[in-house]
Amino acid sequence: MTRARKNLVFVRVGSKSLHRGWLDGPDERNWDLQLSQYDDDPEIGKGGDLPLSIDKGTKWDSIYRYLTKNRDVLERYDYIAFMDDDLIFTKRDLNRYFDICAEHNLRIAQPSLHPDSHFCYSILLQFGATKLRYTNFVECMAPSISTEYLRTFLPHMSQVISGWGMDLIWALTMPNPAFKSAIIDEISMVHTRPHATGAVYDAFSEQHLSPEQEMKRLKSGYSGLPDKMLVYGAIDRDGKRMSGATVQRLNGFSLLANSWRYREPMRAIKSGGAMLMRAITQPRYIPETVRRIQHKSA
User: Fold this and answer.
1) Is the Cβ–Cβ distance between 164 and 212 less than 8 Å?
2) Burial class, 71, CB count within 10 angstroms (exposed 0-12 / middle 13-18 / buried 19+)
3) Helix, strand, coil % (nearest 5) of the chain?
4) Origin, by domain of life (predicted)?
5) What's the structural domain count of the chain?
6) Confidence class of residue 184 from pLDDT cuts 50, 70 and 90?
7) What is the model's pLDDT at position 174?
8) 297: in domain
9) What does pLDDT average to over the chain?
10) Torsions phi, psi of 109, nearest 5?
11) What CATH number should be reported for the domain holding residue 262?
12) Above 90 in pLDDT, residue 13?
């Protein structure tokens, strides 16, 4: 009898989805696969472990509908990773992803980005000196969220469509958020699609939906949001703790030294310099819980 797996990979799949590559290799999986299909290709939805979900919406509104209709999923699994379908990832690294989340009792995390990736935020690029970096920011591309936390965060997702802005909030809405969210550097993924492209952005255009406007609206509903994406601690490859000032300094130097390796060198250089500055100006930063603003009804 197959032992029940403790983790779930949820992926929105279209005709160009790369998720089948995640199943390659001899390793046993510690995760089940839930496919959520957004186009009409009859073949793309085959191969999941759970019944296929078909939803023509965008990523995060579809996820919200799925979770509210299938609340038993939140009881069956310890972590759910919500993956984009344009990522190159190995089965072994996906297994390790969940293991690290559990080992360090993370509420939310994401893999680092391989240097070959298209990227928006240099903070997400893989840093070779650390196993993981604690951060106040986790992108929407491939977050792993503990179901214990997800049950409490679900109401925050009720008005989300594009997902823009949610990544600025969900690492900080939990009580005592310090050291509960991280970028995992031991593993990495390749993001193959340039930012703001693909079927989901076509859908935004067709619906006359502006992700920028949604992000502005979402942010206006919270007080205490930090104005910067910050790393404030780390665990090195030997398992030792690193202070925020130390990891920011080393990470900053790494971005400067390796900027030539990335698709957007100037973006990495700018971020590296900013990290070095914050190692001096914000060496003891620790995140605090953000509060939802309760607007008074008219």
Assistant:
1) yes
2) exposed
3) 35, 20, 45
4) Bacteria
5) 1
6) very high
7) 95
8) no
9) 91
10) -155, 175
11) 3.90.550
12) yes
Q: Which amino acid is at 41?
A: D
Residue 140's nearest CA partner among 124, 122, 117, 159 is 124
- Residues 156 and 80: their CA atoms lie apart, in Å, by 17
Q: Is 62 left (phi over 0), alpha (psi -120 to 50) or beta?
A: alpha
| Rounded distance between C-alpha atoms, residue 106 and residue 128, angstroms | 20
| Residue the block writes with tokens 């959520």 | 36
In a domain, 298, yes or no: no
List of residues 6+ apart from 126 with CB closer than 8 A:
112, 113, 114, 115, 185, 188
Do residues 155 and 205 touch, judged by C-beta distance below 8 A? Answer: no
What per-residue confidence (pLDDT) applies to 1?
A: 35
Using CA atoms, how far apart are residues 64 and 159, in angstroms rounded to an integer?
9
Q: Which residues contact 201 (CB under 8 A, 6 or more apart)?
A: none
Residue 196 has pLDDT above 80, yes or no: no
pLDDT band, very low/low/confident/very high, at 296 (cuts 50, 70, 90): low
For 107, phi then psi, to 5°, come to -90, -35
For residue 114, give the DSSP letter.
P
Q: For residue 2, is it within any domain?
A: no
DSSP symbols for 128-192: TTEEEEEES---SSS-EEEHHHHHHHGGGGTT-SS-TTGGGTTTTSSSS-TTSEEEEEEEEEEE-
State the residue range of the domain holding 190: 7-292
Prediction pTM value: 0.92
Q: Is residue 1 part of a domain?
A: no
Q: Are residues 197 and 203 in contact, defined by beta-carbon separation less than 8 angstroms?
A: no
Examine the pLDDT at 204 and tell me if it is beyond 60: no
Q: 41 vs 95, which has greater pLDDT?
A: 95
**pLDDT at residue 4, as a whole number:** 87
The strand pairing partners of 109, in sequence order, are 144, 182
Mean pLDDT of 6-24: 94
**152: closest CA among 169, 174, 171?**
174
